[in-house]
Specification:
The chain has 459 residues and is an alpha/beta fold. The chain is built from 17 helices and 14 strands. α1 crosses α2. The radius of gyration is 21 Å and the shape is globular. The two termini are 30 Å apart.
């Protein structure tokens, strides 16, 4: 039986993260953002108190792309989402499982955020970060890793939020995961990234690429030809991400036709794994991809804002859904259980690993562990090239991560960065007590320096 816990405290703090090169996705270009840190203290029934932490970049104009809002407005919504979730979670005074606490709060969170005109994707951000920190604290209390903890269903996942599943399907999925020992980095080719940068990445050993699209089939075709030409002679695999930029099914059909018939693009088509989120999240449900009559797989990302999104997308011809820890680790896992169940029934469904520039340190480790638990072999990892490693992080915190995870980080120039070798990341040191992090929570984030109570966590 899953252990029960009660949440005793939640603290929030931020650290500014400047990018070393601009990142353009969809209609926005990001040159810096703030990273949210969450520290929690829980009481595990019969075992006493334990602390945990999580971290995530608050990316402007992704969780909410409303043109009437500024980039700062959308980040403020994420802060409000976290503050709202903190209040709602702390109001649950009794003991419950980690997932039970999430399930008891998520509907209230969405309702409260809707009243403040915060959309569902942004509303889920606060609970996603608190859930990760709670799981970290629970795993530390139980003295086990996230991989062992999830395989035995330590959080207590059940089907109350996914009535299309049952306990047997959830338990079977969790128990049969074989975590990946290495993850290939899928190098992102942003809208302002040059073709030369693609060649450089290939020369450095990257073999997986994620190509951002702009929504104009003619311009996207020309850009894809340039990229395919740059990668000619390389044994690579690619995904494409439209970031909601296509506005009509006919435009998407034109792109698909070009991929299938243009002699310059056919080599790319043979290596294309899937196309991500072609339409605006609110318009996703207006178009059936079955009308395209194409073998190309499509997945949802921004449209994945609730527990019913993946089944809805499946009905429209989508075959996959992204896993992002900022959207919720429990939804990611339950979607994985769905894919496994549907495939056993003769389907061909999958989970993909995407990110929003997970930063070196806690954020990238927790998300990579979730990816590895799914058994996935490659993942988008923006932070390794759009951000210069542990930029703007105190040296003592950087040193702690380097010492605790020497397979995952290495000294590079004057700093420390992810250790990507032959395009691969090791997950070996993520097999540690807690949520993929051997550094004590009290040594992570601004709270370590500013809050004496958090300082005590490391002792």
């Amino acid at each position: 039986m899953a252990p029960r816990l009660a949440l005793r405290s939640v603290s929030l703090s931020e650290r500014r993260v400047p990018f070393r090169t601009p990142f353009r996705f969809g209609a926005v270009t990001v040159s810096e953002a703030s990273q949210l840190f969450v520290h929690v203290e829980i009481e595990v029934e019969g075992k006493g108190r334990s602390q945990g932490a999580s971290a995530e970049l608050m990316v402007p104009k992704w969780f909410n792309k409303d043109p009437a809002l500024s980039a700062d407005d959308t980040v403020d919504q994420l802060r409000q989402s976290a503050e709202t979730a903190r209040t709602i979670y702390l109001e649950q005074r009794g003991f419950d499982t980690a997932f039970g606490l999430h399930a008891a709060c998520i509907s209230r969170q969405h309702a409260a955020c809707a009243t403040a005109s915060i959309p569902a994707l942004a509303a889920a951000f606060g609970p996603a970060e608190i859930d990760k920190a709670i799981l970290d604290a629970l795993l530390r209390a139980e003295g086990t890793s996230v991989f062992e903890g999830l395989q035995t269903n330590l959080p207590g996942l059940d089907a109350r939020l996914t009535p299309d599943l049952d306990a047997a399907a959830i338990g079977d999925f969790l128990a049969t995961r074989a975590p990946s020992p290495h993850i290939a980095v899928r190098h992102t080719i942003g809208m302002v990234d040059s073709v030369d940068s693609v060649r450089e990445a290939a020369a450095e050993g990257y073999r997986y690429f994620k190509i951002k699209l702009g929504g104009d089939p003619a311009k996207d075709r020309a850009r894809l030809i340039d990229i395919a030409t740059a990668l000619d002679g390389t044994d690579y695999r690619a995904t494409a991400d439209a970031n909601e930029q296509y506005v009509a099914l006919d435009d998407l059909h034109a792109l698909v036709t070009a991929l299938r018939t243009d002699p310059w693009l056919i080599p790319l088509l043979d290596r294309l794994l899937y196309i991500e989120q072609p339409f605006a999240r609110e318009n996703t449900w207006d178009f059936s991809l079955r009308d395209l009559d194409t073998p190309i797989a499509f997945i949802i990302d921004e449209a994945d804002d609730s527990y019913i999104s993946f089944p809805r997308a499946r009905a429209l011809g989508y075959r996959g859904v992204s896993s992002k820890s900022c959207k919720g680790l429990y939804k990611s896992l339950l979607n994985g259980a769905r894919a496994k169940l549907w495939n056993a029934q003769g389907g061909d469904f999958f989970i993909s690993a995407e990110d929003l520039t997970c930063q070196a340190g806690l954020a990238v480790q927790q998300d990579t562990a979730l990816v590895a638990f799914h058994g996935l072999t490659h993942a988008e990892r923006n932070g390794h090239h759009y951000v210069d490693g542990f930029t703007n992080t105190p040296p003592e915190e950087v040193d702690a991560f380097l010492a605790a995870h020497p397979d995952l980080y290495e000294k590079s120039g004057d700093g420390v960065r992810l250790a990507v070798h032959d395009g691969m990341l090791s997950t070996r040191s993520l097999f540690t007590n807690g949520f993929a992090c051997a550094v004590p929570p009290g040594r992570i984030g601004p709270q370590a320096a500013d809050n004496p109570r958090i300082q005590e966590y490391q002792t």
